[in-house]
Structures are given as C-alpha cells and as structure tokens.
Write a structure and sequence with these properties.
- Helix 1 packs across helix 2.
- It is elongated, with a radius of gyration of 30 Å.
- The protein has a single domain, classed as Penicillin-binding protein 2a (Domain 2), CATH 3.90.1310.10.
- It has 8 helices and 11 strands.
- The strands form 3 sheets. Strands 2, 3, 4, 5, 6 and 11 form a 6-stranded mixed beta sheet that branches. Strands 1-9-10 form a 3-stranded antiparallel beta sheet. Strands 7-8 form a two-stranded antiparallel sheet.
- With 229 residues, the protein is of the alpha+beta class.
- It is 41% helix and 27% strand.
C-alpha cells in the first residue's frame, strides 16, 4: 500500500514538473512573439494584407489656337469576372445574376481565369450591381482611361499617341511627346487593406500622396491648318 502511494506521488510530481516546464516554455514563446518579434510580424502581416497602389492623375487637354479641343482623356468602367474556379456552373450562375440587371452582359474570356462581362458601364448600372459585388467577390469593376482625339487622320497623326507607364499616360509621338512634361500629371499613391478575396476592406483606404493633374496645351495652329498640312 505504501509503495502504491509513493508511486502515485512520484508520478504526480513528474506530471507537475512537466506542466511547469510547458508553462515556462509557453510563457517564453509568448514573451518573444509579443515583445522581441512583434514588429517583425506586424510588418510581415502588413505586407500580406496592405497594398499600395497609384491612381491616375489626369492628363491635360490639347487645344488649337481657337480653343477647340483636339485631344482629351475619358474614363470608363468595365465589369470583369476574375476567378480561379474552373466550374462553368458557377460562372453561369454569376452571369445569370448579372444579366438580370444588365441583359446585354456576356462572358468574353480575356485570359485563363479572367472574363469580361460588360464594357463602359453607366453609373446607374454600377450602383445596381453593388449587392452582387458584395455577394460574389469574383466580380470586379475595373477602370480604364482612354486618350481621345478628334476624328481626322491628319489630326491624329499630328497629335500623336500615348502609352500607360507607372499609372499615367505618357506621350510617345507627335505633340503628345513634345509636350509630355506639361500634359502629364503626377499620379497619386494610396494604401488599402485587402481581405482574403483581395477586395478592399471598407474604411481602410489611406491617401499617401495626392494626385496632381497635368496642364492643358494650347497650340499656335488651328484644326484647319493641321488638316491642310
């Protein structure tokens, strides 16, 4: 009987020592991660959850000597379905929901998992789609900016072309290139936190640098001069 009691006490002491050692180790790890490694893991978490982006500053217009606009920029909003899911039934179901609001919507594959559903949506349609955008994270509204020039071949050649670089339009030929430093603005910078679906978390958008729009350029020739030459 005495041996049994001694064995029980010995096992109890060993168990208590094990619990004590575990508690000490757990406390040490907790102290390490909450004090010494805290900043490191905060920065790592921010890299995963916080993204920095640029937004378009706005390119200046090009006018002839009579103040007629020859070149300007317009912004459009397109609806995309961006999903890694290859189940066509899911895509069909989402499309069916979208077509209840926009009957003209259709799936057009852009690349592997990216489909365009509708180009150039009106503000009213964007507002109407808000419930679906919340319910289906794979639905995305993406903006794009196009440079427009009056519809004469001579004017288009004279004005030249632009390309997007670093979030802004930059001239690569013609007047667009000659006056690029005047026409180009400075893109804005923002930070935003993303959820697990890579959607913006409401209320986390933070402006880091305000965008500065480009200036207009007024030429010393008229549109008629350009067309003649």
């Amino acid at each position: 009987m005495e041996n049994s009691t001694d064995n029980f006490k010995l096992r109890a002491v060993r168990l208590l020592w094990c619990i004590l050692i575990w508690a000490v180790l757990a406390s040490c790890w907790l102290f390490y991660y909450s004090v010494f490694a805290r900043q490191k893991y905060i920065e790592l978490g921010n890299k995963i959850a916080v993204r920095q982006g640029t937004y378009y500053a706005g390119r200046g217009r090009i006018l002839d000597k009579n103040d007629r606009v020859l070149a300007w920029s317009e912004k459009y909003f397109d609806l995309y379905l961006i999903s890694l899911e290859e189940d066509p039934n899911i895509r069909s179901m989402i499309l069916r929901k979208v077509t209840e609001i926009m009957p003209e919507a259709a799936l057009h594959r852009v690349k592997d998992s990216v489909f365009m559903l509708k180009r150039e949506m009106s503000p009213e349609k964007i507002i109407a789609l808000e419930p679906l955008l919340t319910k289906f994270p794979d639905l995305k509204i993406l903006s794009r900016t196009e440079r427009k020039v009056v519809d004469y071949a001579e004017v288009r050649n004279y004005i030249g072309r632009v390309e997007f670089k670093d979030g802004n339009q930059h001239g690569v030929s013609g007047i667009e290139k000659d006056y690029d430093s005047v026409l180009s603005g400075i893109g804005g910078i923002y930070e935003v936190m993303l959820d697990r679906h890579k959607n913006w978390v409401q209320g986390t958008w933070l402006l880091k640098r305000k965008a500065v729009s480009g200036n207009d350029v007024k030429l010393d020739v008229s549109i008629e001069d350009i067309k003649r030459n």
